[in-house]
Amino acid sequence: MPSKRKEKEGPPPISAMLSSAHDLDVPLNRDDLDMVENFEACWSVYMQEHPELMPAGGRSKKLIELKSQVMESKLSLKKLEHEYENQLKVFGKSRDLLEINYQKGMQEALKRQKTIHALLQRELDRVLEADELESQIVPWEHFLASVDKAALVPLLEPKDRSVKPSSRAMALVENVGDPSDVQLRAFRIDHALLTAQVEMLQREIEKVEKTTKALDLTGEFLTENNIW
Prior knowledge:
Blueprint: H1 14-17, H2 30-49, H3 58-151, H4 167-172, H5 179-224
Helix pairs in contact: 3-5
């Protein structure tokens, strides 16, 4: 069998070397030896905690290098942690700023959307009003066209300058009784027709104004806001 390699023994402890009174030429009792052992134990602990104070032997030098590397690693780790903390703070500030800008943008967009909606709704109401006016004008125009067709008289200025009921009124009046009464009733019909026609013309003007204004304002607003 191969012989086991005998480990190198270290120097004997101080307490072993001071086992007799001849070592220091002074008598040592048990208390003196216990004090030496305690000192030796404390010294050993101290040297283990401060290996750089030991002679630069092979193993001791390696321990010092390893401890130095550990210290450098700890410093690098601490530096990285500090850098990461700074980056987290920067990212947090950037995130908060983005959140503020996002909320501000959302509020502005919502406000702008409400403005657009209110304007378009207002112009839509004008279009609906114009459409309502149109629904009142069309039957009137249809009625006048039917009366003109029934009158069978062209709407030209008559050569006779005497005041007479219009052909429309004569087409609508009941031609029964005294001619003077018939003519009077026809004049009344003319008055009613003219009054209604003036009202319809005013509604026609109002309809055109509302439609034109709604189209102009809507087009201008959409162009300014790049919505087309």
